[in-house]
Amino acid sequence: MCPSLLEERLPVSTTDDIKARIDLVSYVQRFVPGLKKAGRNHKACCPFHNEKTPSFVVNPARQTWHCFGACAEGGDLFTFAQKMHGWDFKEALRELAAEAGVQLRPQSPEQKSRSDHLEKLRGIAASAADFFQQALQRESAAGVRAYLRDQRGLNAETVQAFQIGYAPDSWDFMLRALRDLGHGDDDIVEAGLAVRNDNGRVYDRFRNRLIIPIRDERGRVVGFGGRAMDPNENAKYINSPGSAIFDKSRLLYGLDMGRSAIRDSGTAVIVEGYMDVIQAHQAGYANVVAQMGTAMTEPQIRLVAPRFAKRIVLALDADEAGQNAARRSLDVARQTLSRDYAGKLSVDFAILQIPAGKDPDDFLRESPEGWPALVDNAQGVADFVINMEAATLRAAASLQERQAVAQTLLPLLLASENNVYKQDNIQKLARRLRISERDMLAWAQEQTPLVTPPPPPLPDEPPPDLPPDYWDNEHDLPLVEADGATEELGTTAPAPPAAKEPLTRAIEAFCLGVLLKNPNLLYQVNRKLRELAAEDDDLLRGPLGELNASDFTQSQYRALMVFLQESLAQDDMEPMQYLGQVLEEDLRAELRALLIPDPDAVSDRIKGNFRVDLNDIFRRGSQKARPGFSLQDELIVRALQLRLQRLETERVEMQYLQEEAQNGSDRDEQYNDQIRAKIMLSMRAKARINVAVG
Questions:
Q1: Do 615 and 669 lie in a common domain?
Q2: How many CB atoms lie under 10 A from the CB of residue 91?
């Protein structure tokens, strides 16, 4: 087997080095003690969902894991660590590298200086949280403790868990405490704990207030919310000011404590205030977080959807301000998800309306047992916005007035790829506004179509467009037949001949290179997968889910795909700029190779063993594109072929597990049926993909 360009250039990638030093089986066993050897593999009940029959499998030879149960997910050491700890890839890379003793790329002096400064500010905030917490236990704070217990209904465990504290009625309580630790006034002010007036005097920002520390999703204290204990205080609530570590538009209060519950339930309930969250968690509903503002923002939505949640329930206050905030949040959600490079439009939004005009805090204190029913029965977006807007119309509203309402609502009601859902929304709106469905359909067709975002800026020397005949038919990846199993499903059929390693690598490089240059095309690939699933939830959640790192076999390509998806989920900078900042040097080298291929260098290293002549490929790349050639269509076909290869690998593993279950002493028919159903689902997906790729 010939070495890849990267393997010639670098002995081993950082990710490969880490995986070579940390055995996946040993790592998983730390968190899944029940993982036991079963034939060639290790099996256990999945740590990510409740089950009685083991469906979680670790393959020690391949150093991969897969859940063949409800999760229908799998991956390598990095994906397991991410899912187990809730880390993003960068966090997993840093933590696993430290454990493995692998040196990552050192920071530049400027990066280290900024990182050290941010760490100092977070350290100040963490120390302040400790001081506030200690102050709450003083004799002078007895009234504050009584307020929490008697009026808010919070027990001591909840107060401790959320590190609730108290800022004494003093101008320099916190200032003196932090100075004693050696912190300067400038840093204390920048961290938001003190204020400097026009005369240069520095004093405490929070005085005689109940203090609620605000943490980011990693659990680091970054700011504070303070509730006045004096009823005559004009500002009932104040927050830390915006700073290098605190931006409330990019935070969801309680996410650090609720992330696992959100992931497990698939639902994030968004409330308005800190007390709503604290009360919900005390009642056992940990998937509740707060938006800390008058409406959801785009960065807040991206924190939870679709990363952890496929359903978002807005449970804002019942007053007019709360309802208006819900509407603004829905508009932001529509715009955010419509612009998503990855085409993730399947997030379900709903509105929770609490009876008798109560806010979530009141309801949870009085009737905590009724909360699940409210969440489950939350009103759909269409019904909510139609009722809300229609209520503003006069009884004798003119056609023009009703048309104005319709055209206001249509963008939101059409923000779905589900045609049945869109049709139903149009019918509901037409009935409510007393407008013919034909006219409503005509107005809907006039709505501005979804515009995919432009690709990010590229390096100064962008690569040439790939030629239309990059892949000739005789070099196509062998397709997996839908009937890859024999008629007797329990018997393993011979696996189809595997594609040669260089060709597989070439197809992966092609797909990843195109996506790096044109991130918006990931939306089109995912859209095609959803079309093939045809709204079948089992296929959508399983074999026809979105393109991801598991579709790539090369570890460096898997890592780049994860980072690409991360770059598209953030909005602080362009994707390529983000990649340039977060990638380690070996992955940066691979990125450059994918974006700006050197045909001579590649040809020298491949030595003619590639199934396609690379010199010929690049020579033909300068020729005029063949009429009708579509880079998008070519990418979709190649991505589907990668998915076919992945599904076939998983099918072989599943059939082996089924044989084990049939022949073993602990034969479990229910487990056998589950595996059989998974194989059948995989075969259905492969049949649809084969039709699509021709």
A1: yes
A2: 14
